[in-house]
Amino acid sequence: MAQKPKNIIYGVDENPPLSVTLLLGLQHIFVMSSTLLLPVVIVREIGGSFLEVRNVVSFSLIAAGIGTILQCLGKWRIGSGYLVPNLCGPSYLSVSIQAAWLGGLPLMYGMTVVAGLFETLFSRVVHKLRGLFPTEVTGLVVLMVGVALIPLGASKFVGIHYEGDPFDPRVLFVAAVTLTTMVGISLWSKGKSRLYSVLIGFLVGYVFSYLAGIISPVDFEEVRHAPVFALPGFAASSLQLSFSWSLLPAFLIVSLCGALKSFGNLVTAQKINDENWKEPDVKNIGNGLFADGLSVMSAGLLGGVATDTSSSNVGTSLATGATSRVIGFVAGALFICLGFMPKLAALVSIMPDPVMGAILIYVTSFMVLSGFQIILTEALDTSKTFIIGISFIFGISLDILPGLYVHLPVWLMPVFGSSLTLATVMAILLNQLFRIRKI
Q1: In the chain, how many domains are there?
Q2: 13 in a structural domain
Q3: Nearest alpha carbon to residue 207 among 6, 87, 355
Q4: What residues make up the domain containing 269?
Q5: For residue 133, is it within any domain?
Q6: Which stretches in the chain have pLDDT values below 70?
Q7: What is the model's pTM?
Q8: CB count, 10 Å around CB of 194?
Q9: Is residue 362 part of a domain?
Q10: How far apart are the first and last CA of the chain?
Q11: Residue 196 located in a structural domain
Q12: For the CA atoms of the chain, what is the radius of gyration?
């Protein structure tokens, strides 16, 4: 029986009051919405119409909401039963654009369904592969999940996205105020104020962004003109599914990497909900991966972009001390509602970069620390040191020197698509190599 840690206010099986649950669900919505630009980028890359953009965004929201609810379900071997929300999957961005270029949205949808199907199949055998994921590997995955958020969070925090971008002190000021607000509430607030640290920081960030001119009345005009309620339309392309053998390896590799990222998120969820946590419950993780795979499949079938579990939201639940699965049900339902409410989606979509950066830095702090704690659960011998050290070094090299691996063979590129993917694959391979040495 899991023992609730002292820093958790509402545990996974507890039911917060309705008003608290709604506010916490809304708070998760703001964090989950950080990737809403991905479907916009994909559709615009192929010259899609405004209607196609709106439909793809709406169905992506609905699919992410479905995935979040399934993840929290924890019954009938579907879902882990933990608060691990879904969002539009950044891991799938490059291959989704590639598919859209090659065969339009129908090909992207079809390959997304295949990727989701692969993850559901993988989820049913992952417990038999327990030897691939010892504590040092799972801890490294959790650590790299946090590290993978650093470039995005830091760039948005300081307002510099590309080399040579001008420095804007307003962005740094707003980000610092937002982060200070969240950290201050976490450190010095009394009672249950910590539950709303991200939500309060979000509101403060919006106010200061408006005063600093980072968001303007024009942005809010778009929100004002958006309809309150509208049914997303099934465009002709969303009713078609295409398939390409040439894209299959890339989508399968990305699907596996996404599953490994979700593996790390689910391990973190298990750990933060059990004071006496020792090792991952791989069967429970398999059920969580099954729900994640169903979410990816639903995105392709509906006409949205692939989804993925959200590291930021797991970090938010730890930071605020609220890990109740009921919050996940509410957040998932709200995300589905956003798919039918363009006005609310528009409000979230204009989230200023410094606010998003501050939130990412805030929640990433908890993710990185959680990874270190898992790694240090057991004593580290020489082989574990090399597994962690070598994998971490090469993984982080991808963020420090992004152009280092640009000339690798095309079939290897998905492995080098992110520091998380590279470090995870290397850790698994090194673990197996050192196990052979011990036989």
Answers
A1: 1
A2: no
A3: 355
A4: 18-159+215-352+367-438
A5: yes
A6: 1-2, 33-35, 37, 40-41, 44-45, 49-51, 94, 190-192, 222, 232-239, 344-349, 437-439
A7: 0.74
A8: 21
A9: no
A10: 35
A11: no
A12: 21
